[in-house]
From TrEMBL:
Protein name: AraC family transcriptional regulator
Organism superkingdom: Bacteria
Domain HTH araC/xylS-type: start-end pairs: 8-106
SMART domains found in the cross-reference section: AraC_E_bind, HTH_ARAC
Length: 277
C-alpha cells in the first residue's frame, strides 16, 4: 500500500518523536487538521488508529532495543518509551504474548522463521563471520525522491520496477538507489512493515515527494547474495554483532544502498547501513 503525503507527514512525525509522550492532538496539529478529521484520514489510509499506531510502534521499537542492547536493563528501555516497570511488562505481554524477560530469552526463536520467504533457511553466522563483513563508515546526507509503502517486503521487486519507471527521467550515472526501513520484521508483522523506496536526485529537482536521509556514522554490512537472505543478514547484525560490540543504535533509521543487481538472476550487492552513536 502506498501512503498519501498527509499520512506520510504524520508517520514521519510519530517516528521522530516516538520516545516522547506524543498524543493524537500533537500529530493532528503537526499536520494542520482537527484531531477528529485527521483520525479518520489516518485510519482509512493505514487501517490503524493513530493511538494504536503510536502504541504499537513504542512496543515494537522497545522490543527491538531489548534485542540489540542486551547490556541495558528492561526497566531502562521501558522508561525510554514512557513506561514504568509494572505497566511496561503488562502492555508488552499483551502485544507480544510474552513478558519482556521472556522475549529477551527467546530472541533467537523469534527469528528462525523467515517472514517473507517461508522456504528460505535462516542461517545465523558466528560473530567472526559477521564481523568480517561489517565496517564503520561515515555516510553523507542523501537528498532523495521517495515513496513510502506499508506492507510485505516480498513485493519490493514489483514496487521498485514501478518506481524506477515513474521517475526514469531523473536517473543518471550518479543516481544511488536506496531503501529505507523502519521495522524489524522478526518483531513487526509483515503486512505492517514500513519502508521507503528512494533514489538520489539533485536538490533542484521539481518533484514534491523529496526528503533528506540524514547521514552520519553507520555500521555497514556488505551483503552479496539474493533477496531471500537479506533478512538473515539483518538478523546477523541484530542478534550476533550488535550485542557483542555493544554499539548503540541511535534514533535515525537504517537503509540499504544498492551497489549492483542482476535483474535476471536477482544476484545483488548492497550495503546494509545501521546508524550508530
Amino acid at each position: 500500500m502506498k501512503t498519501n503525503e498527509i499520512v506520510n507527514r504524520a508517520i514521519t512525525y510519530i517516528m521522530k518523536h516516538i520516545d516522547e509522550n506524543i498524543t493524537i492532538g500533537d500529530v493532528a496539529e503537526h499536520c494542520h487538521f482537527s484531531k477528529y478529521y485527521f483520525s479518520r484520514i489516518f485510519k482509512n489510509e493505514t487501517g490503524e488508529s493513530i493511538y494504536g499506531f503510536i502504541k504499537r510502534l513504542k512496543l515494537e521499537q522497545s522490543a527491538f532495543h531489548l534485542k540489540v542492547e542486551r547490556e541495558r536493563t528492561i526497566t531502562d528501555i521501558g522508561f525510554d518509551y514512557g513506561y514504568c516497570p509494572s505497566n511496561y511488562s503488562q502492555v508488552f505481554k499483551k502485544h507480544h504474548n510474552e513478558s519482556p524477560i521472556e522475549f529477551r530469552n527467546n530472541i533467537f526463536q523469534h527469528s528462525v522463521n523467515h517472514p517473507f520467504y517461508p522456504y528460505a533457511e535462516v542461517n545465523i553466522e558466528s560473530f567472526e563471520e559477521c564481523n568480517r563483513k561489517i565496517s564503520i563508515e561515515t555516510i553523507k546526507d542523501q537528498f532523495v525522491i521517495y515513496e513510502r509503502r506499508i506492507g510485505n517486503y516480498n513485493e519490493l521487486i514489483e514496487k521498485w520496477a514501478e518506481f524506477t519507471d515513474k521517475y526514469k527521467k531523473y536517473i543518471d550515472e550518479k543516481t544511488v538507489f536506496l531503501e529505507r526501513t523502519f521495522d524489524d520484521p522478526s518483531i513487526t508483522s509483515a503486512d505492517k512493515c514500513i519502508y521507503d523506496i528512494c533514489m538520489t536526485v539533485d536538490k533542484n529537482c521539481d518533484v514534491e515527494n523529496t526528503c533528506v536521509i540524514p547521514g552520519g556514522k553507520f555500521a555497514v554490512y556488505h551483503y552479496k547474495g539474493f533477496p531471500e537472505q537479506i533478512y538473515t543478514a539483518y538478523q546477523n547484525m541484530f542478534q550476533v554483532w550488535f550485542p557483542v560490540v555493544k554499539k548503540r543504535i541511535d534514533n535515525r533509521y537504517g537503509f540499504d544502498i544498492y551497489n549492483k543487481i542482476d535483474c535476471d538472476s536477482m544476484y545483488m550487492e548492497l550495503d546494509i547501513c545501521i546508524p550508530i552513536k
